[in-house]
Amino acid sequence: MSQSGTSRWRSKVVNLPMERKLLLVFLVLITLPLSFIGYISYSNYSRSIEDNTIAYSTNMLGSMMDRIDDYIEDMMRISSIPAYQDDIKQNLIASNSYYEQRAKVSGDDTTAVPLDFDLLLSIQRGIEGNISFINNIKRGANSVYIFDQYGNGYYSTQAGGIRSNIKESYRAWVEKVRDSGGEAHLISTQKYTNNLQNVRYAFTVVRKIIDNSLQPIGLIAVDANISVFEDQIVELDEVTHGTTTIIDEEGNVVYDSDKQLLATNIKGQPMAKLATGQKGSFYLEENGQRQLYIYTTSRDTNWKVLISIPVYELTKNSVVIRNVTWIATFITIGIALLISIVFSFTLTKPLRKMMRLMRTVQEGDFSVKFPVKGEDEIGQLGRQFNRMIFRIDHLIQDIYQMETKKKEAELAALQSQINPHFMYNTLESIRMAAELNDDTDAADMLSILGKLLRYSISDLHEEVTLGGELNHVRNYVELLNYRYPNRFDLVIEVPEELMRMSVIKLSLQPIVENAIYHGMDDSSRLLIAITAEEARPNVLIRIRDDGLGMDETTLTRLNRSLGGTERQAPKPSSTGGIGLRNVSERIRLHCGQGYGLQASSALREGTEIVMTLPYREGDRPL
């Protein structure tokens, strides 16, 4: 908001009636605290829900991940069973030996040598019987595959159906464990179609089968259907109203509640990038909705489980509390508004009554009286109002009587006053008589005296130029030189452009008069120099004499007097004219407190008075 707009708004508020100001104050005092309390309550409640949800979900995720780790660890133990089953190892060795001999005899043409069905059936029964036993050890291990070194597979399933792409799967599994020494390798969820043409998702534990001489004799792969996660994750999603995703270290999706991301890689997606560290939480905007992500990492597999919870689910209860708070706030404001209206009108009614009485007084009727009904502030104000009206009425009567007497006195003074024109005409007649008698000095003195008298007794508030005031000073010094022949030298150095500036009438002559009567020495001539200069934003006029000067104490008292801090000047003028203090006070009244006179002097070296006036463009009066 601009400064002018702010000023207008502040002016409107200041000019509001009292009852509206009170209503505004009541509303602010009620609305702001209630709104602040409601906001703080809502924020704290929402933050508390989020913190509790994060803590609870993190604990649940940790517990679920521990159970998944235990399950995978059991799968890894299951994959190590063939290493301890001599029957499986002997049959694998037999299978490897048979296919090795067959390869040597037939070369590339395997159809040239007939199959030994009895041997193959014996090997198959020996291995697959043990596979059925392995399948029954752990729920969820629904497919177990055992291969010899030539990729010939033996398998058994619980849920029915084996991988239709078993050859491709075998080659991928062999590649995964190529460099291992018999350790189990966990492979993330893969999508496949079984021989019943059903789509399945499973994660797999693969391990080389090692004989007693630590030589690889085959491969075991244990498929676990992702349904082993379902029960735990469904329970977690129901509690949190969110969705759960499990990813491996490479960003492959092991499990997804919505089944939309299974067996895909989401390493480049924001939720995978932000899930750094062992555990934590973060917020993410998805499809126009803000989601809270909470995640933790398996200590064994380094799989990450992330749960995504819509923020509106977290704040659903807090929104209800917020709405209830706002409703209660508005109801409270409404009730408070009614109470404040009654209270403000009750409080301002006496003030409005007093305003009406004041208007009546303004019209000149002092007979009104405010009805005082209590001893509170309004009652005391009314009592003082009645006293004030009574006192003003008496003062007006007194002033009226004083003005009547003053006018009578002025009339008497006017009747006894000599007409100034009569004085000018008389002086002119005397001057003409002196000239007729060839007394030129007397004629000149009378002419100068007439000019001085005419200038002095005219209106003191009349505006004059600096040139006119200096001309009056010249006449004054010239007249004194007739009285004291050749005792005073006057030097004036003022720029022509300053001659037109307006000054206060009779502001320089009292200073020159003071210099003559207090600085004159009987044995020498007195030089008086008047200069003026611009010192923007001021104009400085200096009146200097080479007379007797004054000591430090007298100078200090004089400057205090000129500054208005001392009641009397140290040496008031004995001539009865306008003194230095009077001139300084008149300048301050016209121009302000920063202007006036300032004296500097030294004993036997003369005195300088500096007059400071405001600089004004053109010829404008002070």
UniProtKB/TrEMBL annotation:
A GO term from the CC aspect: plasma membrane
Residues annotated as domain HAMP: 345-397
Reactions that this protein is recorded to catalyse: ATP + protein L-histidine = ADP + protein N-phospho-L-histidine
Membrane topology: Multi-pass membrane protein
Pfam families in the cross-refs: dCache_1, HAMP, HATPase_c, His_kinase
Enzyme's top EC category: transferase
GO molecular function, one term: phosphorelay sensor kinase activity
EC numbers: 2.7.13.3
All copies of domain Histidine kinase, residue ranges: 418-617
Protein name stated in the entry: histidine kinase
Species: Paenibacillus phyllosphaerae
